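Risk register update: the risk that structure generation would not scale has been downgraded. Supporting records follow, first protein first.
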Amino acid sequence: MSRTDVSTHQGFTAEERAAMKGHAQELKKAAARRGSKADKAAQEAQDVLAKIAEMRDADRVMAERVHAVVTATAPVLAPKLWYGMPSYALDGKVVCFFQSAEKFKSRYATLGFSDQAKLDDGPMWASAFALTEVTAEVEARIAALVKHAVS
């Protein structure tokens, strides 16, 4: 019997490899940190703000607004980097994250939610949302989703 399907999988893309390397560096930095829990949390929040500051203008503006909405809506969520992306965790587990369009050369940024988010709505629900702009209406929708995710 001859095999007719030929795999064209070339492995991970350069962007995916960079994200994995970034995650490994984050884990290494976290393990190396010593100090109080508050010191670690403050450093992780600074790391998120630094990552946002590195983004291109459109992504940076959206990430800043998402960060402001998430931290104001759910102060129980702790900012931290997750695979090189700004994310927000509850008890160390990521609930939601912002992915810039530039990171994976996408046409839009993404606000995503992990399986830790309590967004369940029947047998099917959205766990990621495309963002091209963060308006007042979008901010309100983000706030409602985040509030629901941690309820």
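Supporting record for the second protein:
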Amino acid sequence: MSLTDRAIEQIRELIRTGALPPGSKLPPEPELAAQLGLSRNLAREAVKALAVARVLEVRRGDGTYVTSLQPSLLLEGLGGAVELLQGDTVALLDLMEVRRLLEPVATSLAATRITDEQLAEVKRHLDAMRAARDDVEQLNVHDAAFHRAVVAATGNETLLTLLEGISGRTLRARIWRGLVDDQASGRTLAEHEAIFDALSSRDAVLTHAAALMHVNHTERWLRDHLRNADSLEDGPQGPRVHG
């Protein structure tokens, strides 16, 4: 472990133990360095690293504060990391596997907790998807909103942030573009309708099955597409679908 990593860990320990609770202000840099037995340079580097990780917030002219430490804040970097993996076939398939493990369970949980107002929001996005069945951009927007509204109904912010992060806007757009080109968007819309119908019945088992079928079909399409893209990589026209 480098000296900077050790300095980061020391500040994290202060936060974990409650010595620096969410929203609290850190001591001035010289005092913090002395308290931790660090040089001012090490303390400064540790603070910078924790600010990038959204654990700390540096307010110019005011000082450095511990953030709210909410999952949505601390995990928001996951989505950016996923966007960087778009060219890695193995990583994309790994992400789809994680989605297959988490999303059906989350959707099933939502069936037991969703309110009438939340169900109405899901339906609004489903209706918008039907209206935009040939518009990849709008399909992508409302597809993401549909799934977000479903998982938000669980009331589990960590689960929501994780699933939003691993889905990835670029990956969703890539999939929808391919589905429209393959004239398979109708089937995928029908899968969303099945999820909504199961949610409406508040049937957790049926909802799990509908979500699992949807994610499995999407994953299988992506595997086939990636395989075909690899086979066409050296061809005159290249891969048919672009991310």
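Residues 234-243 have pLDDT under 50 and may be disordered. On this basis the risk owner (M.S.) recommends closing the item.
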